[in-house]
What we know:
The protein is mainly α. It has one domain (8-175). The chain contains eight helices and four strands. It has a two-stranded parallel sheet with strand order 1-2. A two-stranded antiparallel ribbon has the order 3-4. The N and C termini lie far apart (48 Å).
Amino acid sequence: MKSSLLTEGAKRGGDRAAFERDVYRKFVRNERGEPKGVAQLAKSCKAIENKIVRTTIAPMRIYPVLVADEPAVEVPCFNLHLNEIFKSELGGGSHVRPLSVMSINEFEEILAHVSATVLTWVDLLDSRFDNESVSPLSVHQGLYNWLRSKGIQSVRNESRRAKFEKAAAGIMRRYQPKEGG
Length: 181
């Protein structure tokens, strides 16, 4: 989970180099070269694969997932770009699948489908991979494509919906104009 947001200048300034520097600094390594999200995941995956970190069951495949506050992770090719960096951090010859990058909103959308047993994480993630690469499309689009290919309707996140309705009701009670006034 990364709660870094890209700077407005990097996102909207039209300067590719500034954008790439900000993405690297927020998602790969900070100014001091210390690992962040992508580099941390690569290190953790290697540690699991090399049995430095023990797991209950030795995984046949490892699925690295980076969830971010930054909505820009949903734009086409963002995941593809970070996966290329992830692969270079990871090195070759492993059982680690490509990196999946998603926003918190996408994560919550998927949780509704997984909770309803409509699909599994492996179903969705594997549908986005082509050998060692990942689809340039967002996770949301991948979910939509997977559901459509199976003829399955989308599922709403009822927990999130209930929280929204409670908040909306509170706002309406507080700010709704009084009758006759």
